[in-house]
Specification:
alpha/beta; globular
């Protein structure tokens, strides 16, 4: 069974604490924190996501899955370290060199957090193969990062399948996560491609019954 990481991007501020509690009761495996800086992607969610992450730190033991869609990777890692997230994911495309990628991976590990890399739909998995033995997870974006509610790009599933095959051939236990357009209509396709974790936002948050929505995805 796959795990579900619920994106809290569309959670209403006035109802945030209750929503987080309801998601925990409903059985989400992670809270997915979409940190955007208005530079690497168009939208800026830095303030609200940090606020939400602080609330979650105080009220829940469900692990946080922090996804940095930012140019200032180091600054944002430093910001989230005190909140002790389970996973911090940064974008390969935001790094200036392979040496910088390795530096961030090691820095995250040194702080007892699991490191992950994300790639956009047009980035080839060949670019990140050398880092896989060092990573807890790869997040393959199945939409262009930065906006919620987009439709899954079918071609990205080929990348998932190829990555899964490569991991198995090389006996690597790196997890595969997908993010973007994941709902009850697309979940079977991404499962078949070989994922371990699915990020779903509006597909869960807009549902009348969180538990039912999460169980259907699982």
């Amino acid at each position: 069974m796959i795990e579900i990481s619920t994106s809290i991007l569309t959670v209403e501020k006035d109802n945030a604490t209750k929503t987080f509690y309801d998601l925990e009761v409903a059985g989400t495996d992670y809270y997915h924190i979409d940190v955007m800086d208005g530079k690497f992607v168009e939208k800026n969610t830095e303030k609200i996501m940090y606020e939400y992450a602080n609330i979650l730190k105080q009220i829940s033991n469900i692990p946080m899955d922090v996804h940095l869609m930012v140019e200032d990777i180091k600054g944002n890692i430093d910001r989230y370290i005190p909140l002790n997230p389970n996973i911090i994911t940064f974008h390969y495309e935001a790094c200036k060199s392979d040496e910088e990628v390795i530096k961030f991976i090691n820095y995250i590990k040194e702080n007892n957090i699991k490191p992950a890399i994300s790639i956009k739909p047009k980035t080839d998995i060949e670019k990140i193969k050398k880092f896989l033995p060092m990573l807890h997870m790869v997040l393959i974006m199945t939409v262009e990062p930065g906006k919620g509610g987009q439709k899954l790009i079918p071609e990205t599933l080929d990348k998932v399948s190829k990555l899964k095959e490569y991991l198995e051939e090389n006996n690597l236990d790196t997890y595969i996560e997908v993010d973007g357009g994941i709902n009850k209509e697309t979940i079977d396709k991404v499962k078949k491609a070989g994922i371990d974790i699915a990020v779903s936002g509006s597909g869960i948050i807009s549902a009348d019954n969180f538990k039912e929505a999460i169980n259907k995805l699982k």
